[in-house]
# Entry
Amino acid sequence: MQFTIDQLNAFIAVAREQGARRAAETMRLSQPAVTARIQALESALATRLFERRGGGMSLTRRGAILLRYAEEQMRLLDRIRRDVSEPSEVEVSLRLGVAETIALTWLPIFVTRMRHQFPKIDIEISVDMSVNLSRSLIAQSLDLAILVGLVSEPAVANLPLPNVELGWYAGPGIPISGDPKDMFLSRPIITFARSTNSFHELKSNLFDRYGTGVAFFSSTSLSACLGMVASGLGIAALPRALARRDVEDGRVVSFDPGWTPSDWQFSAALFRDPPNFVAERAVEVAQWAAADFDRDFRSISIRN
# Structure
C-alpha cells in the first residue's frame, strides 16, 4: 500500500470543497488531475473514500477516518518544513491578496523582506477590494489576505495591522476656505466603491452633516480617485499615506472641514488549520513592514 502527499492533499481539498471541481480550483490543478489522485488513493487503500451523488462528493465512514489522519499528517509536515528546513534553500509559495492601499504603500517593503527570508519563494499577488479578498480567502484561493476589517469565518485568524488614517483632499484650483457645507454641496465627493463599508459610513456621515444633496463619484480604484481629485473633478477622503507625495508635489491640497471619516482598520487574515508556516511567517513580516512604514510616514508628517 503506497500513496503520496499529493494524493492526501487532493483528498483533503475534495473533502473540504465537497467536489473535485472546486478542489481543483483551490489547488490550481485540472479537475481530471484531482480526480486521478483520488482514484489512485482509493486504489492504494482498497476502499471507497467518497460517495458521489447529486453533483457533489461526501465522505464515507472510512473517508472521515482518513481525513482526521490526513490533516494530522499535513500539520506534522508543516512543522517539519518550519522547524527543520533551511529557509534559504526551501522552495515555497505564497498566494497573497492585498487591498490597493497596501499595494501602493508598504507592499514592496514586505516583498523584499520575504525574499530575504525565503530566496526561493514564489509570490502570487492579487490586488482587490477587501470584500473580494475576504471571499477569495474563504474559498481558499489565497493563503493570506491583507484587508480592511475582519474575515468573518470561525476558522480564520485575523491579526491586527496598523490603522490607516484618512484625510480630505481637493485639487489645487478649488477654493477650500469658507463654509464646508458649500464645498461639499457644490462638487461631487469622489469616493470608494459603493459595495464597501467605508462608502456607506462616509455617505451616512455626509448626509447627516450636509443633507441629501451631496453627489458621489465612486470608484474601485484609489489611484483613480486621487487622479480625479488632482484634475479638479471633486474632493475626496483618502489615505494620508497614499496622498502624501501628491500633496508634496502640489498636485492636490489637503483641507480640514472639522472632521474626517474613521481610520481604516487593517488586518492580516489566514486559516488557522491546516497550518501554513509560510503564511504565518508572512504575517510577522507584514506586521513589521506596516509598522516600519507607519513610523517613517509619521516622522515625515511631523517634520512637514
Summary: The radius of gyration is 24 Å.
